[in-house]
Backbone:
């Protein structure tokens, strides 16, 4: 069957990173693009909010005061999901009730003292300082003997369960390799063993040749809507040089990473003229002291919006009970993102 036929009929696509599948139903969207063009109400967020626990000088839940920080500020989460002194324990009843203790550390990284900014509206120089904070945290946390995985992630927007607009991300570092990176580790290893190359190097080479799902590229990074994307405007940032973690970024790559972060988040905001919600995260090699030749750092963006600033994709019914499904093809969504300006709509001259 030809690729063009596939794109007109229901088909399943394989996620090569996790080994899972997604159902694509392009025949349900033969209608033209209905994306909202009207601007949603311009939010008036103050530069400083006396009630925000992340703003400089303000009091946090544990009674501590934030310093008068100028760039980034990192602290241990006052409501950590994981704690370091969790006692070691294993529970197993007939292999039916199975549990084990888990040690970990949870941190919060404030991107900026400004309450009203997001990555999309920050200068690339300031985004580089965020990358620097990520590097320091990854190095320090990964060095702990009982920390084998460090997950840096951001929940942006109330739609993603984050009610505080102050720009920040979280880092959860833990003993176990959690499920999502665990699936990727298996597939990275399998591919590397067989081909002696990284799975994402070969995938990126193909994407850069086909240019059907390319959203943006600079000299060190490319952004694609992955072939197997589940969320309408899901993207994947892939470094062109295979690196296992952010500590391996060269100076120019750090600059290019901050550029790619600003551009993709700006394109997202421009899509529906709104501060675009998403969950994003960097998948890096485990910090288990082993050499991870197979691992290729990458960053996922999972945005919930479908057709406007208010209409989101639901993961319900068939998706909860069977597998993920989408109507708009990844190629179609990539072409829309590709065509969007990398100048933020709020910065444009009216
Ligand atoms: Zn991943």
Residues:
């Amino acid at each position: 069957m030809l690729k063009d036929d596939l794109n007109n009929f229901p088909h399943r696509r394989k996620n090569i990173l996790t080994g899972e599948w997604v159902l694509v139903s392009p025949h349900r969207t033969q209608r033209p693009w209905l994306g909202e063009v009207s601007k949603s109400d311009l939010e008036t967020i103050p530069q400083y909010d006396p009630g925000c626990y992340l703003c400089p000088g303000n009091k946090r839940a544990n009674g501590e005061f934030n310093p008068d920080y100028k760039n980034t500020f990192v602290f241990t989460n006052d409501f950590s999901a994981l704690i370091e002194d969790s006692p070691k324990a294993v529970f197993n009843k007939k292999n039916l009730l199975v549990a084990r203790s888990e040690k970990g550390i949870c941190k919060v990284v404030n991107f900026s003292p400004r309450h009203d900014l997001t990555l999309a509206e920050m200068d690339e120089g300031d985004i580089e300082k965020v990358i620097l904070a990520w590097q320091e945290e990854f190095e320090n946390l990964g060095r702990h003997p009982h920390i084998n995985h460090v997950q840096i992630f951001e929940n942006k927007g109330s739609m993603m369960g984050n009610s505080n607009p102050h720009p920040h991300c979280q880092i959860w570092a833990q003993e176990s390799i959690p499920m999502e990176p665990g699936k990727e580790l298996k597939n990275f290893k399998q591919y590397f063993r067989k081909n002696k190359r990284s799975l994402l190097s070969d995938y990126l080479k193909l994407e850069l040749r086909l240019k059907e799902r390319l959203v943006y590229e600079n000299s060190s990074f490319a952004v694609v809507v992955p072939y197997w994307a589940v969320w309408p405007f899901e993207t994947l940032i892939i470094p062109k040089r295979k690196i296992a973690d952010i500590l391996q970024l060269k100076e120019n790559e750090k600059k290019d990473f901050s550029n790619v972060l600003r551009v993709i988040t700006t394109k997202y905001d421009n899509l529906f003229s709104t501060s675009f919600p998403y969950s994003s995260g960097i998948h890096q090699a485990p910090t288990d002291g082993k050499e991870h030749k197979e691992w290729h750092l990458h960053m996922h963006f999972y945005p919930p919006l479908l057709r406007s600033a208010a209409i989101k994709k639901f993961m319900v019914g068939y998706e909860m009970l069977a597998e993920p499904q989408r109507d708009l093809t990844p190629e179609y969504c990539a072409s829309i993102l590709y065509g969007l300006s990398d100048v933020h709509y709020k910065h444009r001259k009216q």
